[in-house]
Amino acid sequence: xxxxxxxxxxxxxxxxYLSDLSTINxxxxxxxxxIYPVTILMGFFMILSGCGGDFESTTTDLSSKEDSLSYSxxxxxxxSLMNEGIEDVDVRKYVAGLNTALEEEDSQIEQMAMQNLIxxxxxxxxxxxxxxxxxxxxxxxxxxxxxxxxxxxSSDVNETDSGLQYRVLEEGDSDLRPSxxxxxxxxxxxxxxNDEVFDSSFDRGEPxxxxxxxxxxxxxxxxxxxxxxxxxxFFIPSELGxxxxxxxxxxxxxxxxxxxxxxxxxxx
Length: 268
Fold this sequence. Notes:
Blueprint: H1 15-19, H2 21-51, H3 65-83, H4 91-102, H5 111-151, E1 157-159, E2 165-170, E3 183-191, E4 197-200, H6 201-204, E5 208-211, H7 217-223, E6 231-236, E7 258-267
Antiparallel strand pairs: 1-2, 2-6, 3-4, 3-5, 3-7, 6-7
Helix pairs in contact: 2-3, 2-5
């Protein structure tokens, strides 16, 4: 069965991801605020039930299923906190609050005050992340512009009015070209200007099918240049890609130029 949407990149290629980013960030913030206490309780309840409240080293006994499950909850919860930029957690105070709740004792901080404290903290974390991302994006945009200017000097590289650059690697025998409303089946490999691969259906050995009007602008425009059976290389400026808002969890930095090698297999 062909993969309708690649889970690493194409779930985030939708234009809605870019156009509705502010709404998504706001929703994510509120979701963090709401689920934070729940996930914390789950993770640390399992840890404490297995070790009696003592703190263990990073290497611990995982001889039973319960041990492994407890460790998994703890590791994944810790990873989640770090990935979200939450680094100011004192684990012992953290567990003290958990124990107080599990023992049904009165909190030292009022419930509303705790909620406001967490919400304000998450807002500060998000603001700091946005500031760091903006600074990183400025550097990447400058590097990307320099790359594209040099790349355009190659005789086999073309540029459209939008700034999309492309190279024809192989022309297909068909005269069929997709329109922006078509669904296409492709193989692709995505790299950064430093040759780092961030996604590849070639490596997975499975093509991807998706609506052409639900992807980043550089893809929507570029694939309409191709005929079925063709293979092109696209050099997509950040404004035609993800801009300053790359897919969460990917290794695509903000403001990055994206390079895609694309083979158009079929038009659905």
